[in-house]
Write a structure and sequence with these properties.
Radius of gyration: 13 Å
Shape: elongated
Order of helices and strands: EEEEHEE
Number of domains: 1
Structural class: alpha+beta
Distance between the termini: 18 Å
Strand order of the largest sheet: 3-4-5-6
Number of strands: 6
Number of helices: 1
């Protein structure tokens, strides 16, 4: 995702893991536990992209449902 600042467009912006149908950001992790830092990362992506909904998915859990968080602006 490129960053625009005061009319200057930088192509070396953030790298989103997945954008579904141009409306949902999916951020994929494989960590011991999700932290507030991971949530802040996804919220930053949502703010910069203008999208409203994102999913934070951690694949390092016994039950997948325990590793999914939905965040919205």
């Amino acid at each position: 995702m490129p960053i625009s600042y005061e009319g200057l467009k930088l192509d070396v912006g953030y790298r989103l893991d997945l954008v579904v149908a141009g409306t949902i950001i999916v951020e994929v992790k494989a960590v011991e536990s999700l932290s507030r830092l991971h949530e802040a990362q996804l919220l930053t992506y949502l703010k910069l992209s203008g999208l409203k909904v994102g999913f934070l998915m951690n694949f390092n859990v016994p039950l997948f449902k325990d590793g999914v968080r939905r965040l919205a602006l």
